[in-house]
Every structure is written in structure tokens, then in C-alpha cells.
Design a protein that fits this description.
The chain is 35% helix and 33% strand. It is of the alpha+beta class and 139 residues long.
Length: 139
Amino acid sequence: MKVILKNKIVDVKEGYARNYLFPYKLAIPATEENIRKLEQRKDEVEKELKEEEKKLENLAKKYDGKSVTIKKEAGEEKKLFGSVTKKEVVKAFRFPSESNVILAAPIKELGEYTVPVKFGRHSATVTVKVVPEENDVLL
């Protein structure tokens, strides 16, 4: 007996389909109508995946080469009090997700850093400039 199981058509014994797959809604009969719906759904999913891929490619192009300046308190020898983390980079660039930023370790010194970012299969590089925070002291 042919059934549709997880978006593909497979051949199983009739008893297995009737007693297990159908009652637990793990499969549906491979009728002409169901096969047509499966093909239509595959086309829709493929179209959605292409649109998502295009969106991710555009995001990578949008951010590639961009830079941002982050001000942090620093001590002597350019050492930061604390560090610049992924969260701060995501917030500064307004990335969709923290998983987009590939930062091996938090930034702990002043300077200019090239940070790789990924959007699906597409990647880009951004520049993070860490500068000292100016403290205005009023006397």
C-alpha cells in the first residue's frame, strides 16, 4: 500500500498503515488528491526557501563593510574595564540574532576589529571600533 509519510511516498504493508500509521496520524493514504496536495506543498516550500535565501543574501550585502563605534571605559595600556561582547555588537548593528555574529572571544582592548557575521550561507564582515569613553568631570 502506498502512503505519504513525511512528505514522501513510501510503500508499506496495509496492516501497518491501517493499524499504526493512520491512527497516529503519521501518514495519509497516497490518493491522487493527496499526491497533488503534496506536490503543491513542495512547490510552496521551495518558493519560501528561495525567498528566505534571497532575504539572507540581501542582509549580508547590507551589512558587509559597515562599521560601528562602541565607547567603553578603559584603563592604562588600552585595557577595557569589562569587555565588548556579542550582545553589544548585535545591539550596535541591530542584527536579527546573536547567532549572526562570529566573535571567538569578547573584545578586551581598545582598537579596531574585523568581525565576521553570517546570514545563513552568506557571510559578511563588519568593523567594530572600540574607543575610550570620555568622562566629563565637573569641578
